[in-house]
Specification:
By secondary structure, this protein is α+β, with helices and mostly antiparallel strands. The longest helix has 50 residues, at 9-58. Helix 1 (9-58) packs antiparallel against helix 2, helix 5 (222-267) runs antiparallel to helix 6 and helix 6 runs parallel beside helix 10 (435-445). It folds into three domains: 14-168, no CATH class; 223-303, Signal transduction histidine kinase, dimerisation/phosphotransfer (DHp) domain (Helix Hairpins, Orthogonal Bundle), CATH 1.10.287.130; 305-341 and 349-466, Heat Shock Protein 90, CATH 3.30.565.10. Strand 4 and strand 5 form a beta hairpin. Helices cover 48% and strands 17% of the residues. The chain contains ten helices and 14 strands. Strands 1-5-4-3-2 form a five-stranded antiparallel β-sheet, covered by helices on one side. A five-stranded mixed β-sheet has the order 7-11-12-14-13. The chain has helices at residues 9-58, 126-139, 161-164, 174-207, 222-267, 273-301, 311-324, 365-382, 410-415, 435-445, and strands at residues 67-70, 82-88, 102-108, 145-150, 156-159, 307-310, 329-333, 339-341, 349-351, 360-363, 386-392, 396-403, 449-455, 458-466. It is rod-shaped, with a radius of gyration of 46 Å. It is found in: Cell inner membrane. GO terms for molecular function: phosphorelay sensor kinase activity. Its EC number is 2.7.13.3. It is a multi-pass membrane protein. Residues 251-469 form the Histidine kinase domain.
């Protein structure tokens, strides 16, 4: 269990903000302390250079940590070493000599020292120049050898490792300070990403089509867990209400079966044929209404499991049932349409469409049969015949039912997808106005939708389905 799973968002935010401030304060302290130590180290080297220059000019005592050794010959450059040569004059230029000329040789196994940083070149005193040289040597860790010569005098080796040697330099903790600040920032951003990712995952799960049938994950910070628990409780309550409604309607439908049967038997004994027909029509409408509401409620629940199926085979079976009773229903397989998908090198490209003979998908067979039957019934009710077509591409499949002679428009049919809505031309035709509502609900449960279009031969209803919705 992660830290986010144990505490609330408020507590974690306070903790991380406090840790970030502490890490920031530590980083600033390390940086400033290290910077102050380095400034003090370079200042000591500069002062030592000034004292060395005074000792060379006036014979005063050498500063602490520096010792002079007189050489018999000019200093030789060891193999592989680098040498920086500097000449210091009192006038600022070699041709304007004021006092003894001071020649410097800095030998290092690693680097050539930047001559431009010596302040006396271009102006200044020899003391300032020698102090600047000492400061520059103290700045870089190289353990150099410094040699000085006044005019044509002997070469002197200046031993000042205690001033400008690597061991004399203070530890530079500025890199550690920067690393601490970056690490604290990375940890804080990582925690923010974890929390925001948990909320994003919860939002995706909440928007998933299975949110009404599967429990949402109850993880993350306390506020997110409480939200997930509340949503799960609400979904469970809503689903229980739907199931109770279906159970009640199923019981009512069952209980009404016996009285309806008795009414039919008793109506058969009515001699008045017109009265008997009206009574039987009322009984049929009552039972149809109960069955329609029960079917609609079951479609809302969507409890039927998803399985692999062939939409073409399902449509063939449904159409065959209508053809067996000599109803004008025919099946036509629409040519497959290639899907469009983006690639790395182009915005869109064609992908292979599914085989027109298979049209495989994952769906609820019983629900899809009911939806297709409802579309065919509407086409036969408001038109003269029904033409069923099956089509699809790599992502979606669709069932199209076209009638002939219907006067309804696409807007009229879109309105009829609501519960208990009937067309103006329904007249005395049987029905309770739930057929298209059931089809629309089943299409939505398969990641699709119900559309209408005015075809040349009649009104076309198209139920679009996702191939891999569950």
């Amino acid at each position: 269990m992660s830290l986010s799973d144990r505490f609330s968002l408020r507590m974690l935010a306070s903790l991380w903000v406090g840790l970030a401030m502490a890490a920031g304060g530590l980083a600033v302290w390390l940086w400033m302390a290290s910077d102050a130590a380095w400034r003090g180290h370079l200042d000591r080297a500069y002062v030592a250079g000034l004292a060395l220059a005074d000792s060379l000019d006036n014979g005063s005592g050498l500063p602490e940590g520096i010792r002079l050794v007189q050489l018999r010959d000019a200093p030789a450059l060891p193999p592989g070493w680098r040498q920086t040569v500097i000449t210091l004059t009192g006038g600022g230029r070699p041709d304007l000599a004021r006092g003894a000329r001071l020649s410097l040789r800095i030998q290092s196994p690693d680097i050539l020292y930047p001559v431009a940083e010596v302040q006396s070149l271009g102006g200044g005193s020899q003391a300032a120049g020698l102090a600047s040289v000492a400061r520059t040597m103290a700045r870089f860790c190289s353990d150099p050898h410094l040699f000085v010569q006044q005019d044509a005098g002997p070469w002197l080796r200046v031993e000042g490792a205690a001033i400008w040697g690597c061991d004399a330099a203070p530890p530079d903790r500025r890199l550690w300070a920067g690393a601490a600040a970056v690490a604290a920032l990375a940890l804080l951003l990582g925690w923010v990403a974890e929390v925001s990712g948990a909320f994003a995952a919860f939002a995706r799960a909440l928007g998933d089509h299975r949110a009404r049938t599967a429990a949402l994950p109850e993880g993350g910070v306390e506020e997110l867990r409480q939200t997930a628990q509340a949503v799960n409780a609400y979904v469970a309550q809503d689903r229980a209400a739907l199931e109770n409604r279906a159970l009640v309607l199923s019981g009512v439908s069952h209980d009404l079966g016996t009285p309806a049967t008795r009414l039919r038997l008793r109506s058969a004994m009515i001699e008045d044929a017109d009265l008997r027909a009206r009574l039987e029509r009322d009984i049929d409408e009552m039972t149809a209404m109960i069955d329609g509401v029960l079917t609609y409620t079951r479609a809302e629940i969507g409890a039927e499991p998803f399985r692999d199926l062939s939409l073409t085979s399902l449509a063939e079976a449904v159409v065959a049932d209508y053809q067996d009773v000599a109803l004008p229903v025919t099946l036509q397989t629409a040519p497959p349409r290639p899907a469009r998908a983006g690639t790395l090198f182009s915005r869109t490209t064609s992908r292979a469409a599914p085989d027109a003979q298979t049209m495989l998908m994952r769906g609820q067979p019983t629900a899809l049969r009911r939806a297709l039957s409802n579309l065919i019934d509407n086409a036969l009710k408001y038109g003269r015949e029904a033409v069923v077509r099956v089509g699809g591409d790599a992502d979606e499949l669709w069932l199209t039912v076209t009638d002939r002679g219907s006067v309804l428009t696409g807007d009229d049919m879109a309105r009829l997808t609501g519960a208990f809505q009937r067309g103006e031309n329904s007249g005395a035709l049987p029905g309770v106005g739930l057929g298209l509502a059931i089809v629309s609900t089943i299409a939505a449960q398969h990641g699709g939708r119900l559309e209408f279009d005015q075809a040349p031969e009649g009104l076309e209803a198209r139920m679009i389905l996702s191939r891999q919705w569950a």
